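Researcher: I need the complex structure. Ligand is sodium ion. Inputs:
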Amino acid sequence: LALEARLHRALANEEFVLHYQPQFDTKNNALIGCEALVRWQSPEEGMISPLRFIPIAEETGQIVVLGEWVLRTACIQGKRWLDAGLSPLTIAVNLSGRQLQQRDLVQRIALILKETQFPAHYLKLELTESMIMGGGEQAVELLHALKALGPRLSIDDFGTGYSSLAYLKRFPIDELKIDQGFVRDIPGDQNDMEIAATIIAMARNLHLKVIAEGVETQAQLDFLIRQDCYACQGYLFSRPLSATEFARAILKKP
Ligand code: G
Ligand code: G
Ligand code: MN
Ligand code: NA
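Model: Output:
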C-alpha cells in the first residue's frame, strides 16, 4: 500500500500520537510550555518519522484532517493536565499552510477550544513565514481572526523565508522561533551567530518573545543566555516525550 493510502487508514485507526517537547525560560530554567509533535506508530513499520509523512500529507491534503486531530488532541491533553492540577503551560501546535487555506479554519479552531474547554491563552499556533507571506490582506485578516480567538501566534523556522520583514508589524505575532539551522553550528559559525543575535535583538525591539529551537549543547545555551534569548527548546533539555513521560518528568504539582 502506498503511504498515502496507509495514512488514510492510520487516521481512521488512530495510529497517531502526540509527543511533547518542553520549552524553558532561558534565564531561570522555568518551564514555560511545550511543542506538540505528531508521531505515527504504524503496526507494520513501527515509528514513521514526520519528515516522511508530513510532506505527503501536505501534498494529498490529508494534513487538514491530521492537523485538526493534532490540535484537538493537544487541547484535550492540556485540559487534562490543568484539571489534574499540574502547572499550567502553553502548548504549541504546528499549523500547515493547507490548514490556513481552509475557509472555516477560525470557526473550526473556535469549536475545538469550546469542545475541549482548553483555555485559548494556553494555546500557541506555530506558522511559518512562507505560509503567511504572499497572502496579502487576506492573510493579515486571517491572523487577526485567529488571534482574536485567544491563542498566541509564533513564527516557526524564522529566518528561513526570503520574505520582507515588513509583515512582522502587520501581523499580530507574539513570538519568533529561531530556526534550528541557525543554532546548529553555534559557536563555530560566525554568520549563524550573527543571524541568531540579530533575530533576538529584533524580537526585543519589536516587543516579541523569541525562542531558539534545536538547542543541543551547553555552548549554544551559553551564547543564547548572553544574547538574552527568552526561551529554549532542544535535546539539551529534553527530547519530545510521550504525554505520560512528559507529565512524570517535566510537570510538577505547584
Ligand atoms: O517532530 P519532528 O522533530 O520529527 O518534526 C519533523 C517535522 O514535522 C518538523 O518540520 C515539524 O514541524 C513537523 N511536524 C511535527 N508535528 C507536526 C504537526 O502536528 N503538524 C505539522 N503541520 N507539522 C508537524
Ligand atoms: O519544524 P519544527 O520546528 O516544528 O520541528 C521541530 C523538529 O525539531 C522536530 O522534528 C523535533 O523533533 C526536532 N528537534 C527538537 N529538538 C531538537 C534538537 O535539539 N536537535 C535536533 N536536531 N532536532 C530537534
Ligand atoms: Mn514547530
Ligand atoms: Na522550526
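Model: Summary of the prediction. The chain has one domain: 3-249.
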